[in-house]
Design a protein that fits this description.
The chain is 39% helix and 17% strand. It is an alpha+beta fold. The protein is globular and about 30 Å long.
């Protein structure tokens, strides 16, 4: 992992803000041992691994069909990792956050550039931004299921 200076973080934040301004305005818990061996347990009471799993950067990229994703070696404010690729001919940036507090810190760091949560798509601890407004709405629809 490459660590960048405070000036580098500010430059990265500014680049994100410019990119977004172009838009226009964990592990799942183990099953309860008391119900795991019960043969009469209803299938609806059991969560499938797919339903219980938090989305990952990789699963979001797969849903969006982004094949040229490149994880950035630099640090983005509050993100555990991030990178970019192409979605419908526009640049897409995908960020992963450790928790709600990290996501809120990220929002605070970009709000002075006019970036709002409405310009981002959040699914679990993954956040997506798309440069083109139409691409943003299309990505939002795909990720909504």
């Amino acid at each position: 992992m490459t660590v960048i200076s405070r000036a580098g973080v500010l430059a990265l934040t500014a680049a994100l803000a410019l990119s977004l301004s172009a838009c226009g305005s964990a592990e799942s818990p183990a099953p309860d041992a008391s119900t795991a061996d019960t043969p009469a347990a209803s299938p609806t009471a059991e969560a499938t691994p797919e339903a219980a799993a938090e989305p990952s950067i990789e699963s979001v990229l797969e849903i969006l069909g982004v094949g040229d994703f490149s994880q950035s070696p630099t640090v983005a404010p509050f993100a555990t990792r991030w990178g970019s690729g192409t979605f419908e001919g526009s640049r897409v940036q995908v960020y992963e956050f450790a928790d709600q507090a990290a996501y809120e810190g990220f929002l605070e760091s970009v709000e002075s550039f006019g970036i709002t949560p409405e310009q981002l798509i959040r699914t679990g601890n993954i956040v997506v931004s798309v440069d083109a407004p139409a691409g943003l709405e299309n990505a939002r629809a795909l990720l909504a299921g």
